[in-house]
Design brief:
Elements: E1 6-10, E2 14-23, E3 26-36, H1 47-63, E4 70-75, E5 81-87, H2 92-103, E6 114-122, E7 132-140, H3 141-153, E8 157-163, H4 164-173, E9 182-187, E10 192-198, E11 201-208, H5 212-223, H6 227-237, H7 247-273, E12 281-286, H8 294-302, E13 305-308, E14 316-317, H9 333-339
Helix pairs in contact: 1-3, 4-9, 5-6, 5-7
């Protein structure tokens, strides 16, 4: 029997944890917690910064009453090389031999410096003269070693590391009985991760170098607010142009349109290659997903249905958790997805 695990999402602004237990065949959310990420976070090479982060994680695990030391942690998508590539149709053994040679042209650092993984997304059927699609993921060894070090410093036992997109897809889609081809936007503090998921498989990814912190800075600069005040106004009014004469929307819109532009390009790329498999909806998660007006704005810009991501689907709540977490689902998509790693068959 696999060890009980919990999920650890180390964001640039917040650390989030989630533990899901299988009780009488049903998945129950046992523990949840969030705490600010210390300055510089997990990307710092400073021993003192790493120790501060480890202490924050240790304290959060204790406060949330997590029942296990075994952790699955997410690696920041912006530091990982993720790409869907086309290859000639090969058998598994042929692919195993060819993948390293093929991946050299897509990964900008020596393969000896990365941990390489891949997954076949699709193979030609019945003699079709087509190429196969393969999801390629490469994480720098220096990044992996730093995360393992921080986890060990926190007194925890690393069970696995995986990408943020993989975790978010697991929590947002794999519990759905019917999941049409979907574009997922995970809006973090400094980056936004875009992925297209078809048949519950990641078939396209892109990392966009802007996020919620840029929205806050824009509000602060345009309206002369302090950062804390700007953050509050962003969360309260967001992209709702009917509020405050549209001033908050006017500040955020140029930054958010960078994300919207990337979404449109991804939709156009997909439509050009897969006209028979249309994207039906956009699911938004992350810390800024609940920003007022965001879903309608995105729907108007793309012509697609927009939805807030719900990682709570298919889960019951430990009564001791209280209700304050129920509305924070979109920001826990990664943590919950990590916690579900051993409980969901993908």
């Amino acid at each position: 029997m696999a060890a009980q695990i919990f999920g650890l999402d180390i964001g640039t602004e917040a650390i989030k944890i989630a533990e899901v237990k299988l009780i009488s065949g049903k998945k129950e959310l046992n523990s949840l917690g969030s705490a600010p990420t210390p300055s510089r976070g997990a990307l710092s090479e400073s021993e003192s910064d790493q120790y501060a982060l480890a202490e924050s994680i240790r304290n959060l695990v204790r406060e949330a009453k997590v029942s296990t030391p075994y952790v699955v942690a997410s690696l920041p998508e912006s530091q990982i090389f993720t790409r869907v590539i086309e290859m000639p149709s090969l058998t598994d053994s042929e692919l195993q031999s060819a993948i390293k040679y093929e991946s050299e042209q897509y990964i900008p650092i020596p393969l000896s410096d990365v941990k390489l993984d891949f997954e076949v997304i699709s193979r030609p059927q019945n003699g079709e003269d087509k190429k196969m699609d393969v999801l390629l993921v490469a994480a720098p060894n220096v990044l992996i070693n730093r995360y393992l070090k921080i986890i060990n410093m926190a007194g925890l036992k690393p069970h696995a590391l995986e990408t943020e997109i993989t975790a978010a897809v697991r929590s947002l889609l794999t519990n759905s009985q019917f999941a049409p081809t979907t574009l997922i936007l995970e809006i973090g503090a400094t980056t936004t991760e875009l992925s297209i998921v078809s048949d519950k498989k990641i078939v396209f990814t892109r990392s966009i170098a802007t996020g919620g912190a840029a929205f806050t800075r824009a509000v602060a600069q345009d309206l002369g607010f302090e950062p804390d005040q700007a953050e509050q106004y962003k969360r309260t009014y967001g992209l709702d142009s009917t509020q405050l004469e549209g001033k908050i929307t006017a500040a955020i819109k140029p930054i958010f349109d960078v994300i919207t532009g990337e979404v449109k390009r991804a939709l156009a790329y997909w439509a050009g290659k897969h006209a028979e498999n249309n994207i039906k909806r956009i699911v938004v998660a992350g810390g800024s997903a609940k920003m007022p007006g965001l879903i309608p704005y995105l729907a108007d810009a793309t012509g697609l249905e927009g939805q807030l991501g719900d990682p709570w689907q298919g889960l019951s709540f430990n009564p001791g958790l209280g209700r304050e977490f129920k509305d924070e689902g979109p920001s826990y998509a990664i943590a919950v997805g990590l916690a579900l790693k051993e409980l969901v068959t993908e």
